[in-house]
Amino acid sequence: MWDLLAASDPGLLRLTAGLRTVTAIALALAVLAVLRVPVPQLVAGAMAAMVATFAIREKQRGPQAVTLALGLPVALASVSLGALLNQRVVVGDLFFVVLIFCAVYGRRFGDRGTALGLIGFQIYFLSLFVGATAATLPALYGVLGVAFASSAAARFALLPQTAAGTLDRLRRAFRARLAQLLASQAELLDAGPEEMEKVLEELRTRTARLHETALMIQGRLEDGTSDAAGARLLQRRVADAEIAAERLGLLLLTARSAERTDTLTLHLPGAPVPTGVEPPVRDEASAALRRDLWALRLLMLRPAGEVSGTALAQVRNRLLGYREEENLPQASPAVQDVFRGLGEAARASLGLRLALEGPQDDSDDSPATARSREELDAEDAAIEVSEESEPPAAEPAGLQRPTTRAAVQVAVGSSLAIAGGELLSSQRWYWAVLTCWIVFLNTASTGEILVKGYRRLLGTVLGVVAGIGLAGLVGHHTWTAFALVLLFIFAMFYTAPLSYTLMSFFVTAMLGLLYTLLNTYSMAVLVLRVEETALGAACGVFAAAIVLPVHTDRRTNELLVAVLERLAEVTRGAVDQLSGGAGGDLVELARELDQALADLRAASQPLTHPITPLRSRRNTARYVVALLETCAYHARSLAATAELLPTHPSIAADPRLRGACGRIVHNIEAIAARVADPRAATEIESGSSIASMLEPGTLRTPRYGRVTDRVLRHLQRLDEAVSGLARPLGVAGGPARPGR
What we know:
Blueprint: H1 2-8, H2 13-34, H3 39-54, H4 61-85, H5 89-105, H6 110-129, H7 137-158, H8 163-190, H9 196-224, H10 228-256, H11 284-301, H12 309-321, H13 333-357, H14 367-382, H15 402-424, H16 430-439, H17 446-474, H18 478-495, H19 500-517, H20 523-546, H21 552-578, H22 586-603, H23 605-608, H24 615-644, H25 656-676, E1 683-686, H26 706-726, E2 732-735
Parallel strand pairs: 1-2
C-alpha cells in the first residue's frame, strides 16, 4: 500500500501540501476558539492560515522562514487598506487594480516575489469577504498574527519537510512507478490480440508517469543532495533505469508483433496496435521471460534490507548473465533480444541500488555481476562536475517581458471584472476579480487562459450544486461546517495538480459552507457566484486576447524551436563523443531537452484538449508532441551510451557515426528554422537509409559490434522521426548534399 501511495503521489507532495494546510487552519481555529472570537474572525483566521501556507514556494527552510516573516507585514498592510478603502468605491477599486498589477509583476522576482504578491492580493480579498472595517482592524491584526504563527508551526514543527527528505521520497516513487511499468510489461506477454490495445494504453501511461517522476527528481537534485558529484551520479542512474525500462517495453512489443515496433507506439495516445500480434505463446522461453520480468520488478522495487541477500544475488546473477550471452534460451532473435534487454535493465537496477543505498555485499556475485560492478565503479569514478555555467539568456525588456505583459493583461481584465461585477452585485463583485486573477496564474497564452477559465466555470457550477445540499445538511452547526471546510481544503490541495476542475469544485463547495457560517447563504448567492465566475473568466480571456496577446500558436512555436535546438545539441554532442570527440555535459543537455519538452507539452494542452473543435489540428499537435517524445527517447539513449564511452571496456569510438549523424542534425535545424520563420527557404535532406549500415553479421556477432549496432539503430529511428516531423510542420524534402 505504501508503494501504491508513493507511486500515485511522487514525493508525497500533494499529501504534504494538503495536510500542512489543514493542520495550519485547524491550529489557527483552535487558538481563536479558545479566545472566543466571533465567527467572521474565525473565517478570516482560517483563510489567512490557508494563504500563508500555500503561498510559500521555496524548497529550503531558511528562505521559507524569511518569506513567511515578510508576509505578515504585507498581510497587515493589505487588510488595513482593504478595511479603510472598503467604503470608498472609486478609490478602493483603483487601489485594487494597482495591487493586482504589482502582485503579478512581482513574479519576476522569483518565488519570494510571487508569494508576497499572492499574500497581498488574497488578504485584501479576505478583507472584502468578511467585511472588514476600521473598527475591526485591531482584532483582525491579532487574527492574522495567530494565522501566520499557526502556519509557521505547521510548516516547521508539526509537518516539517526538508529538500533531502522530499528527494528521498521521490526516489521511492521512481522505484514504485518503475515496478508498475514492469508489471504492465509482464501483462503484455499474456495479452491476447483483443486485449492488446488496453494493455498498450496502460503501458503508455506508466511510461509517461515514470518519465514525469524522473523529471521531478532532476528538479530536486540541486537542493536535495549535499554535493554536485552525488547529484550527477543519481541523475545518471535514474536516466539509465528509465531508458532501460522503456527499451525493454519496445523489445517486448517487437517480440509480440510481426516486425520491429515503432518507438512512436509508446508515445502517441491511440496509436494502432503493432501489426501481426499473435496469441500469447506458452513455451519454455516465454515462461522464463515471465519469471524474469517479475524477478526484475522485485529487484527494482525492494531495498536490500527487505529481501534475502542471497535471493537478490541469485536473481541479479541470472539477469546480468544475459548481458554476456549466458544462458540465453533457444528462441527467436526478437525474444533473445528481450532477454538481453532484461540484462541491461538489471545492470541499471544495480547502478540505481548502489547510488541510493551505497556499497553492498558482493560475496555471492557471479563473474558477470562482478564485471557489471566494475563497470559501474569505473563510471562513478569518471564522473566530472563542470563548474562552468552558461550565462542566462537575455530577458525581454519592457512590455515584452512575460511578467510585465501578464501584469498589464490582468490589470485590464480585473478592471473590466470590477465594472461588470459591480453591475451584477455591489456586495460581491470581487468574485469576478478573483476568477480573472486566478485564470492568469501559471498560464502564458490565450489558449491556456481559455481552457483554465472553462475548467473553473465547470467546477464552480458543480460546486454550487454540492453547496446547496451541504448548506441544508449543516444548517447552523458551526464546528461541523468547519470540519467539512477542512476536508474540502485538503481535497482541494490534493487534487489541484491532477484536475483544476476538481479543485474548483471543492473551493466552491467550501465557500457555500463559509457563507452558511456567515449567515449570508442563499440560493441567490450561489447563483451569483456562478455568474461572477463566468464574468471573471470572460474578462480574463478578453484581456488576454486583446491586450498584448500571446497566441497559443506563437507560444507553442517558440517552445517547439527550443525543443528542436536542445534535440540538435544532444544528438550532436552524443555522436561527437561516440565518434571520438568531446561531447560536453551530455547529462545536463539531456535534462534541458526533457524540460523543454515538458514545457511544450504543457503549453500545447489547449490544442489537444477534448473540447477543441478543430479535430485535425488537435490530432496534428498530438502527433508532433509524440514524435518529439520519440526523438527525445533516442537522443537520451545516445547520450547515455556516449557517457559510458570513457570507461566501458566493450565500447570504442567509431568515427563512421559522425557521418551518419550529419543529416539528422541538419534536418532538425532546418525544421527549427522553418518553425521560427515560415518564410525561411529550408528543406530536409534525404538519402541512403542509416539502416543500410545495419546488415547483420551472425546472431552473436553483429556487423559493427552490438553497442555500435544499437547506436546506429537509435540514429535510424531518430532520422525517421525527424523526417516524420517535417511533414506536419510543412518542411519540404530534398536530395542529400554531396558528402552526406
